[in-house]
C-alpha cells in the first residue's frame, strides 16, 4: 500500500477523575468468569491508587517491577503465569509509565500468540489479536498510550513488537494520576515527548498529519517547561495531551538521531529511555541546532542534571555493540538524514558521537 493505513486506539477518555469510570468502561469487556488483570507500576504499591481499582470476581492486581525497562523474558513469564493460573483472561489493564503500558500491550499479545515475544520483535510479525487491553498513563511523554509498538529488550536486540494488533483498545487519560511524579522523572519522560516532536518535525518523513500533531505537542511542551512559571494541575493536563499528540505525530512519521543513539546506550548500559534521550540530545547540535538550544534552556530552567561521561572507559567491543544496535534502526536514520543516511552516519562518526556522551 502506498499510504500507511494505521490502526489507532479504539476508545479514549480524558479528564481529571476519569479513572473513576474504569468499572463502567470495563463492564462490557468482561467475559464470564475470566478475570481482568491490572498490571500496575510498582511505584503505587502501598499507595492509595490500587484501592481505587474496580476489582470484580477473580480479578488480580500484579505490581510490575519497572526498575529495568521491559524485557521479552519478563513478558513471556507474565503471560505464562496468567495462562497457568487462569487459562484465559478478559483483559490486561496497564497502569503506569511507558514501561508498564508496554508490558501490558506485550502480555496481551502473548496471551494469544505462540512462542516468545522475542519472535515478534520487528514490524508486522504479530499474527493474532491479543486479549482486550487498556492503557492508563501515570507519567506523560512516551506516547506509548497511542503507539503501535511495545518496546522490548530481547536476547539480541531492543526492538518493538510493531503491529496493527499492538495499540490499546482503550486508554484512560486522567492527569491526576501523574501528580506525584518526581520532578526529574517528569522532566526526562516529558523530554521524550519534546524529542519526538523535534525528530518528527525535522525529519524527512514529515507530512501535514504528523506536522499538525507535532506542532501542537511542541507548543504544549514549550509552555510547561519554559513559559509557565510553576508546575500545577494545568501543567499535568497539558503534558498528558502533549504526550498523546507527540505519539500521534510519530505514528505517521518516525523518530530520529536521538532515539537511534539512545537505543544503543540503553541496550548496552541499561540507560532508561527518557534520561538516555536527554543524555544524547545534549550533544546533537549538528543535527537539531534549534531543538538542542531550546532543550538546554529547558534543562536550565527546570534545574535538571543531565549525566555526562557515560561512555567513559568502554571497550572497543562495547562501542561496537552500541553502534550495531543503533545502526540497526534503519527507518530512524532514514527519517533523520534521508535515503543516503549510510553515507552520512558512518561507524566512525557514530563512534565519535558515543564517545562524547
Ligand atoms: P517508566 O515507565 O520506565 O517509569 C519510570 C519511573 O517512574 C519508574 O520508577 C516508575 O515506577 C515511576 N513512576 C511511574 N509513574 C509514576 C508516578 N505517577 N509517580 C511517581 N513515579 C512514577 O518511564 P517512562 O519514561 O514513562 O517510560 C519509559 C519506557 O517507555 C521505556 O521502556 C521505553 O522503551 C518505553 N517507550 C515506549 C514507547 C512506545 O511507543 N511503546 C515510546 C517511548 C518509550
Ligand atoms: Zn521516545
Automatic annotation (TrEMBL):
Its domain of life?
A: Bacteria
Which CDD domains does this chain map to?
Fe-ADH_KdnB-like
Q: Name one Pfam family in it.
A: ADH_Fe_C
**Database matches in Gene3D superfamilies:** 3.40.50.1970, Dehydroquinate synthase-like - alpha domain
Enumerate the spans annotated as Alcohol dehydrogenase iron-type/glycerol dehydrogenase GldA domain. 12-175
The answer to keyword Oxidoreductase applying to this record is yes
Q: Which UniProt keywords are present, listed alphabetically?
A: Oxidoreductase
- Fe-containing alcohol dehydrogenase-like C-terminal domain residues are 188-290
**The protein's name in its UniProt record:** Iron-containing alcohol dehydrogenase family protein
